[in-house]
Amino acid sequence: METLINIFNTAVTNIASEILGKHRPVKKPWITADLLNLCDKRRELKKEKDAEDRWSEHCSELYNYRATGTREVLNIPPATDNDNYPILREEVEAAVKSLKKGKSAGADNVPAELVQAGEKP
Asked: Which of 8, 49, 87, 103 shows its CA 20 to 30 Å from the CA of 17?
């Protein structure tokens, strides 16, 4: 008798879900039906291969972006050794005075205090 009741309940539940669709109580109003459908699709990805295919598809969509524009923007003139604007002594002195004390040395391993102390008398 219980077997017949279980079969009947399963049949009624399956038919009702086919006709009415999935009933979901609205607990969080910001979750839309589209988002719930995406969650259902994610749950259906039970096999590892399906998940790998989906990640591959996602990454290819994400990184197959084509930038629009002209390549001429990237053309820059080549560097030359002849500089028409020499560095002025006043610029160097101002830069040395503006060095902050107590900071770590740069790539040349020379601290700012040493540069500032090396001023001509």
From this structure: 49
